[in-house]
Write a structure and sequence with these properties.
Layout lengths: L1 H39 L3 H29 L5 H26 L20 E3 L4 E3 L4 E3 L4 E3 L4 E3 L4 E3 L4 H29 L12 H7 L5 H31 L16 H9 L23 H10 L1
Antiparallel strand pairs: 1-2, 3-4, 5-6
Helix pairs in contact: 2-3, 2-4, 3-4, 4-6
Length: 308
């Protein structure tokens, strides 16, 4: 009798485990198909820019690991391994946060937009999405969907930055600035000792003149291009990071100006974007950090904060 009961319990546990495993697979596949379908609807120009950025990151990483670092340091030396591990960590977070921006869905698709006593008088109706639009939710004409806590539409990631992917966008900007600055130092140091750049090599910065003279790129011109792209990247990413972090610290999004209704204090504002574990989310986008709000019922949180 005991043997039969033990066998029954084992079968029950096995069936429960298989059900949970099947459910996880179904959820993962559902998210993947949603991600794939959203990519298919994107603008062709945005997809080209996105692919260009991904290819550029991969090319820089390969040039550093397989050409610049081996020429600068003996293999395997401590300095080479230090640079390689540092670059790998930065590029890993750069790429994974960038992909997480596209994969994390902040739209109203598949979400239960509950209307509470706080939000019933403040919501509007979107006739395109055919749903009630909560506070801080706007319709994106490019994505053609309403986005929760919509910040802006990011051209390079071909998606909107909102409630659930704003964290990844900000870390992407940070690691892009770090990677670009790292590249300027690394390529600049290598160029100073290994590459001779002539004044005539600067012609590569004038595309029209380059077409007239022919596409005979020299080594010096290639490194001029590499350095120029990094100067542009570090400038743009740093300015964008400062702008968006200023908004986060004040509890604002790009659409807001100086509205203090959603300013819950510095730490609480950081938790609103980065989650409860905001102080360690820089390590990896795979670190789970639960957001304190659902991006829908904002007014109730405002009232709770004012009562404190």
């Amino acid at each position: 009798m005991i043997t039969v009961l033990e066998h029954h319990c084992d079968c029950t546990k096995l069936a429960k485990g298989l059900f949970q495993y099947r459910f996880m697979i179904m959820v993962t596949l559902d998210q993947f198909w949603k991600f794939k379908n959203s990519i298919r609807k994107k603008n062709f120009t945005e997809i080209i820019m996105c692919l260009f950025l991904l290819v550029l990151i991969f090319v820089y990483y390969c040039v550093d690991i397989f050409h610049i670092l081996p020429c600068m340091y003996r293999l395997p030396s401590v300095l080479y391994l230090t640079h390689m591990l540092s670059l790998t960590f930065v590029v890993f977070n750069l790429l994974t946060n960038f992909l997480a921006v596209m994969y994390a869905d902040s739209s109203v698709i598949g979400r239960l937009l509950t209307v509470s006593e706080y939000t019933s008088k403040d919501i509007t109706y979107c006739y395109i999405c055919q749903c009630d639009v909560p506070l801080r939710c706007w319709h994106c004409d490019i994505c053609n969907i309403c986005i929760l806590t919509r910040d802006h539409h990011c051209t390079f990631s071909t998606t909107c930055v909102g409630h659930y992917n704003r964290r990844y966008f900000l870390w992407f900007l940070l690691y892009l600035a770090v990677a670009s600055f790292y590249e300027i130092i690394l390529i600049g140091y290598y160029t100073y000792y290994k590459v001779t750049i002539k004044f005539s090599d600067l012609i590569v910065l004038v595309p029209f003149q380059l077409v007239l003279t022919g596409f005979h790129l020299t080594v010096g011109q290639i490194f001029v291009v590499l350095l120029t792209l990094n100067f542009i990247a570090v400038t743009m990413s740093s300015l964008l990071l400062i702008y968006h972090l200023n908004k986060v610290c004040k509890g604002l999004v790009c659409h807001d100006k100086q509205n203090s209704n959603y300013d819950f204090g510095l730490v609480r504002n950081l938790e609103t974007v980065f989650g409860k574990k905001w102080y360690i989310t820089w390590i990896s986008p795979f670190i789970k950090s639960k957001l304190p709000y659902n991006g829908i019922d904002w007014q109730s949180h405002v009232d709770q904060y004012k009562r404190k």
